[in-house]
Write the structure tokens for this entry.
Amino acid sequence: MKTELIDKAYAIAQERYAAIGIDTEAALAQLQKIQLSLHCWQADDVSGFENRGGDLTGGIQATGNYPGRARNIDELRQDVLKAASMIPGKHRLNLHEIYGDFGGKVVDRDEVEPAHFQSWIEWAKENGMKLDFNSTSFSHPKSGDLSLSNPDPAIRDFWVEHTKRCRAVAEEMGKAQGDPCIMNVWVHDGSKDLTVNRMYYRELLKDSLDRIFETEYKNMKDCIESKVFGIGLESYTVGSNDFYIGYGASRGKIVTLDTGHFHPTESIADKISSLLLYTPEVMLHVSRPVRWDSDHVTIINDETLELCKEITRCNALDRVHIGLDYFDASINRIGAYVIGSRATQKCMLQALLEPIETLRKYELAGQGFERLALLEECKSLPWNAVWDMFCQRNDVAVGEEFIAEVQQYEQAVTSKR
Ligand code: RNT
Ligand code: ZN
């Protein structure tokens, strides 16, 4: 894209925004600071490197068989770096336990150690990326329908041990990078059909979590993720939204909001302010649920926009962590990273460019028409010229230029796999 054209369009946009009291330079500076946590599992359809084989279980599914998925640690690293080179700014990588560097050995989940992530820690440092982490209770012979809430003490202990060890891994990551590693706990536990033991399983989950969180760490932060239902677990989810909000609020833990984990007409944006009043921070898993928790690639839509606007309206940029969580195996996977990341950033930018003071003035004065009119006008203000400038300054593909870049990488690398 011609620099001159981008400069011109930006200068006009800057003036246009200044007229409504918005400093585009300030918005750009804030956007620069926002680090997305890129989900490593988009590169390989949530397979991991356990050297065990077996299917993806735990109520989640990656559909599609587009060629070129990352088959090993080197390919995944290469793909993530390629994707990151088309996403403006500095970002984080969110790893799952099954992506450890196990060196060809079978390391069971209750045996994982920080050593299995040493090469990741080094790789991240070399590439200026910080790491986040997740325990993995799905896709394992002991997963079944119940893990941390399993009535069998042996199975429950196994998963408690796993999750404790994962926290120790996260602590090492956080220490090495001089910045807390955010560790997410999501367990699929639930029931396909009617259960008469809702309370019992929740008591067990609560107890398991209390055991897991016994050790206090300084360099990692815990978050807990709820869900409405999983595939094959439609009637009941132990870790429901109510369960985790109660747990998070009473234990000072971060609650993860996955945009696919609620009833389709529920507003996830609306939840941020309530959570921030009672829990320390919020973690987001930004996704696009098409009719259900389908984990489609995030795009600019009303849901993503409102979510981002709530972060800025709550003045909570430093208390909300933005992670992505989708896995589409039906299109180019590197392209999927880039589309979803850039869409999230574009929504954040629009949020940062919102004339919030004027909108609030209207609202307090009871001027509903004026508020709605300005909100509507904001949608078509030239935010895209500001976005292009952001990409240009970050030296990444501007506009649709990344399509060709993804295609080239496909030709040279992923199509040969
Ligand atoms: C599943 C949850 C969870 C997973 C990842 C792989 O419904 O969203 O966050 O997607 O842990
Ligand atoms: Zn999620």
Remarks:
- Residues 186, 225, 258, 285, 325 surround zinc ion (ligand 2) (CB under 6 Å).
